[in-house]
Amino acid sequence: MRSGSDRMAVLLLGNYRPTLPLSEMFCRRDMHVIAGSEGCDHCAEYSRFVSEIWDHPKVADAKHFLSALTKLLADRPEIGLVVPVEEAFVRFFARQGADLPEHVRIAMVDPQLAQTCLDKVALLNIAGDAGIPVAPFRLVDCVDGMREALDALSYPVVVRPEQSSNRLFGHKALTLHSDEDRDHWFATWPAEQRALLVQRKVGGIRHNCYFAAQSGDISRYLHAIIARTDRMDGSGLAVEGRTIAPEPAILEHSKKLVSTLGYTGIGCIQYLVDEERGETHLLEINPRIAGNHVIPEYCGLGLAEFLVDGADGDLRFGRPDVHYSWVAGDLEGFKSELLRGALGPGQALKWFGRIVRNAVRSDVDVMLNTRDPLPGIVNLLDVIPGVGHITRLRRKEGDVTYLERLVPKARPGISIIKAAGET
């Protein structure tokens, strides 16, 4: 099966917010863009820069996914580049590996490096040994282990899944302030979690440092502050923020960490910064394309180009004083917190007011793009009860392989590649 195009094709794995700016960049390079169907945002099928959607077995089913991928690449020799966009696909290639055709390049950091960065305990130990400040932590895998960790660390603590792509009772992280909180959440061990990272809670706001590096030397860098997330407690996904000039101390921490890891590729380092106490603590490093990848691209960092082209020259910084938003994510967070009773009337009014204000004043939205408007519009519709579900790629009940229909068919010219895999 051929696309009918002689152009080189790229396969983007992860139907995720960054898929949109990546697709636009590859189109500018006159490449044929194919996007995978699985992902948390379901936006690629509406992008004018995406020519085909590959409907594949879930990546969690590694055997069938690899079989389907191998067959697709054999059937479509014009695919010369595979980009794991979402973390689940980075993990797949880092752990599973794949015997792919020689002409196919996987655009990601070295698999062993990816595994080290995604292993929270290993990364925090490496950072601590390098002199980068890290809040005390324990990795636990049972209720008794949780109690021992809490005795050692003392409240408050933050508990998060060992794998950042997982959720803990629907949250990226939980904050425990007392034994009552512990007993409420962890009277029994959550069966879906292999292990949990328990870390002393430190104050401050999250800082994201987007970067590109070659052999441990940073060559591109952008510092952004997350002003708000989609959760009242500050965990969750960023919905408002701004970029700033690099802070020297954090830049030095970033350089030291990247150098220690011998990092080549692009990524995002996260810190918690408490300005009142003058404290900075490393949270994690994501060895992949960041969820808000549109921010460094808008600020001129060119991380997508680096992902493809590699080696770079002298250190350059992205543009500061850029305000960004994610209106749909903000509305979804507002709705979620309101429905679970976390917002009083005054808090709800204040939150909604900030959504409106931020939408008006921001320089760029994570999903809304006038050059490619449909994905952002669908993302907004998803927030509306009773409307969003019809914008999804629908599957037959019990069938994880084939698309049943695309409703509404917002892109009449888009092609669907069906992949059966092994049975």
What key attributes describe this structure?
single chain; 423 residues; alpha/beta; Rossmann fold; D-amino Acid Aminotransferase, Chain A, domain 1; Dna Ligase, domain 1; 3 domains; 8-stranded mixed beta sheet; 20 strands; 25% strand; globular; CPAse_ATP-bd; ATP_grasp_subdomain_1; nucleotide-binding; ATP-grasp; ATP-grasp domain-containing protein
Distance between the termini: 21 Å
Q: Structural class of the helices, strands and pairings?
A: alpha/beta
Give the name of the CATH architecture of the largest domain. 2-Layer Sandwich
Q: For this structure, what is the CATH class of the largest domain? A: Alpha Beta
Radius of gyration (Å)? 21 Å
Oligomer: single chain
The CATH homology group name of the largest domain: ATP-grasp fold, B domain
The tally of domains stands at 3
* Major sheet size, sense and barrel closure: 8 strands, mixed
Q: If helices are DSSP runs of H or I spanning 4 or more residues, what is the number of helices?
A: 13
Estimated helix fraction? 25-40%
Low-pLDDT runs of 5+ residues are 389-412
Looking at the structure, what is the overall shape? globular
CATH fold-level name of the largest domain: D-amino Acid Aminotransferase, Chain A, domain 1
pLDDT average, as an integer? 87
